[in-house]
Hints:
Elements: E1 10-16, H1 30-48, E2 52-58, E3 72-82, E4 86-96, E5 104-117
Antiparallel strand pairs: 1-3, 2-5, 3-4, 4-5
Amino acid sequence: xxxxxxxxxILAMRTSLLPRDTNGAGTIFGGVILSMIDxxxxxxxREATRRRIVTVAMxxxxxxxxxYVGDLVNLWGKIIRIGTxxxxxxxxxxxxxxxxxxxxxxxxxxxxxxxAIDEQGKPVPVRAPT
Length: 130
């Protein structure tokens, strides 16, 4: 059984980042976090469909706290809406500070939209016909 939060989210991804992931300021590069958001969202979206999916949009991502080397990064996700061909997923990123493993800090949230596609890349229904 997957870990879930009090908010009804599933733990879609958990990792610790390395010095190679830092920016010039010494914190984790935002692009690394964006990539993780996309991957975690795809994990959640794939639970709703067994079809191939692609990312079509990522709503505003506002970083509210830095991520440091050694922080344990948790990406929590939940499906917001399932349309005919699209799935909207909310991802919440929090870290457990390496200096105090009990300290959890929310870093950002994002809404990601995925579309189910066929082998030719054309949109198809999220749910297979029965």
